[in-house]
Design brief:
- The chain is an all-alpha fold.
- The chain is built from seven helices and no strands.
- The termini are far apart.
- 58% of the residues lie in helices and 0% in strands.
- The chain has helices at 2-19, 33-40, 45-52, 57-64, 68-76, 85-95, 110-113.
């Protein structure tokens, strides 16, 4: 049993000293592929309306009674929202815009609807 503990300790020490990835995040601006894609992708109208209202994705998803992943899909993948009449009323109240003032498409890039 003592031999096994020494072997395990030795392997752990070796990994910690030689195989642990370097932490470059402090000295370099490291972005994930998803962060780069979001930075380059135009913002959807839905996302712009939500952000202008000062709401997080989590807050709006709770108000609408939907999963955050659904809201993210609507915002990031250009999918048109499908909501009930009640959800549309809550959405318009939450963002402070009347239903008639909404653009024709919420999935389009914000610049296209400006």
């Amino acid at each position: 049993m003592i031999l096994t503990a020494h072997v395990v300790y030795g392997i752990g020490a070796f990994i910690n000293r030689f195989l642990r990835p370097l932490d470059l995040s402090a000295s370099y601006d490291i972005m994930t592929v998803e962060q780069k894609r979001q930075q380059l992708a135009p913002k959807s109208v839905l996302k712009a309306l939500r952000e202008n209202a000062g709401l997080s994705q989590e807050q709006l998803a709770v108000y609408l009674g939907i999963a955050v992943s659904t809201l993210r899909r609507w915002e990031n993948e250009g999918m048109e929202p499908s909501m009930t009449r009640n959800q549309w009323q809550v959405f318009c109240q939450s963002i402070g815009v009347s239903f008639d003032a909404l653009p024709q498409s919420l999935a389009a890039p914000a610049e296209a609807n400006a």
